[in-house]
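User: quick one, sequence for these tokens?
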């Protein structure tokens, strides 16, 4: 089990977002009155139907999208723009990797921008390339990689920059079932080793229970909010065939059927 970080707790109070400039009358909100505390070092899942505002909430936490109201802090720091303490892993790695750079060059890109010495960059990239299982593929270009391998590169690059908080927007949604399960297991191992705070967006109940310590349920939009939070006190690695897993799955599935 990962050891909780001493800081990097995320505090969200009455958060809301509207893409209209209207401030009075009937305002249409994507998310409204979202209240949540995510502890440092926690693996937290945002679960809900497509279009409910999960990605919008994640992008507000990342600082990519401004909020329309409410409060959002990491510890005592107000979040209003992107920061090095937060990094996003997207569903489509193709949109974030540089096709003209090799695996190693992609992983080292942020380190090079920080003007880290070449030898130190190699040490860091070796560590994270190995951590995601890509040792031996350092000199390949993205076009030579499978979808799962591209996601591994994206994850290694994010980890190399050592953010305290990982924001993951359905990162395995485009992968085949076998690759997806492998990536889920490896992500848990990486989280346990690095003790980072992880916020993971999915609409898959099984994935949510396989990964998360807590699962926050978002209501259907518009004006989506977090209606319930389920604790998942199962040990890792988790087995979908156990009665305990099925009990949690049934409880969350029943929530959506209601």
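Assistant:
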């Amino acid at each position: 089990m990962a050891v909780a970080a001493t800081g990097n707790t995320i505090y969200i109070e009455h958060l809301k977002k509207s893409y209209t400039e209207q401030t009075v009358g009937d305002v249409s909100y994507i998310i409204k009155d979202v209240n949540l505390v995510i502890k440092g070092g926690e693996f937290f899942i945002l679960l809900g139907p497509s279009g409910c505002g999960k990605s919008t909430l994640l992008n507000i936490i990342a600082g990519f999208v401004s909020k329309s109201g409410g409060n959002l802090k990491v510890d005592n720091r107000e979040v209003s723009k992107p920061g090095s303490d937060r990094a996003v892993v997207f569903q489509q790695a193709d949109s974030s990797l540089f096709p003209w750079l090799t695996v190693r060059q992609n992983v080292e890109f942020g380190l090079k921008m920080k003007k880290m010495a070449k030898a130190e960059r190699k040490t860091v990239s070796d560590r994270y390339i190995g951590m995601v299982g890509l040792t031996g593929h350092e000199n390949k270009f993205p076009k030579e990689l499978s979808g799962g391998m591209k996601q591994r590169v994206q994850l290694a690059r994010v980890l190399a920059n050592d953010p305290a908080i990982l924001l993951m927007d359905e990162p395995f949604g485009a992968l085949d079932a076998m690759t997806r399960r492998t990536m889920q297991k490896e992500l848990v191992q990486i989280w346990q080793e690095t003790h980072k705070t992880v916020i993971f967006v999915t609409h898959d109940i099984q994935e949510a229970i396989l990964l998360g310590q807590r699962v926050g349920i978002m209501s259907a939009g518009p004006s989506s909010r977090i209606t319930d939070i389920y604790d998942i006190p199962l040990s890792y690695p988790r087995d979908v065939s156990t009665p305990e897993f099925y009990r949690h799955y049934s409880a969350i599935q029943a929530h959506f059927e209601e």
